[in-house]
Write a structure and sequence with these properties.
By secondary structure, the protein is mostly helical. It has one domain. Helices cover 75% and strands 0% of the residues. It is built from six helices and no strands. Helix 1 packs across helix 6 (138-154), helix 2 packs across helix 3 and helix 3 (57-73) runs antiparallel to helix 4 (75-99). It starts with 6 loop residues before the first helix and ends with a helix.
Length: 158
């Protein structure tokens, strides 16, 4: 890797090294967004303090913090992740209204567990340990890596 490469490129190069198997990559494309949604939904279910804040406050705070990381790493990825967060928040808000907090919590827990099982099966197929076991930052790199791969397929740069 070129020493002048952006930090996000170095993260992706390292992350890609642990995700070479096509089956693992296909699992990743489904499981990573599912995990991202489930974390947002779980945070959405945490009651907001006082009357000033609405349900979803903690999720919004987490999404904003993650977005700052992505935007700093790459403006184009940051914009894409902002769009993804808006979609995931909209879905979560609709489910919160339709199901209520308790059923949303159970749904999010179920998706979280199933998606992580899929992830670990993918890593078993790959024969490599998950990247986040070496550095927790990779928990944020995974969604950006999936988005960057989508960008590449569309002929866009990140």
């Amino acid at each position: 890797m070129d020493a002048t490469a952006r930090p996000i490129d170095r993260w992706f190069a390292s992350y890609s090294g642990d995700h070479r198997n096509p089956t693992k990559q296909a699992i990743h494309v489904v499981a990573v967004p599912a995990i991202a949604w489930s974390v947002i939904a779980l945070l959405w279910c945490i009651p907001a303090p006082g009357t000033l804040f609405k349900p979803g406050f903690w999720a919004a705070l987490a999404m904003f913090t993650a977005w700052c990381f992505y935007y700093r790493a790459s403006r184009r990825l940051g914009l894409g992740m902002a769009a993804a967060f808006v979609l995931l928040a909209g879905l979560t808000h609709a489910l919160y209204r339709a199901l209520g907090p308790t059923d949303l919590l159970w749904l999010a827990l179920g998706v979280f567990v199933l998606a992580w099982i899929a992830q670990f099966l993918g890593h078993k197929i790959e024969g490599r340990k998950p990247s986040f076991l070496t550095d927790l930052t990779y928990l944020l790199i995974g969604p950006a890596w999936v988005l960057a791969n989508l960008y590449r397929r569309l002929g866009w740069t990140y």
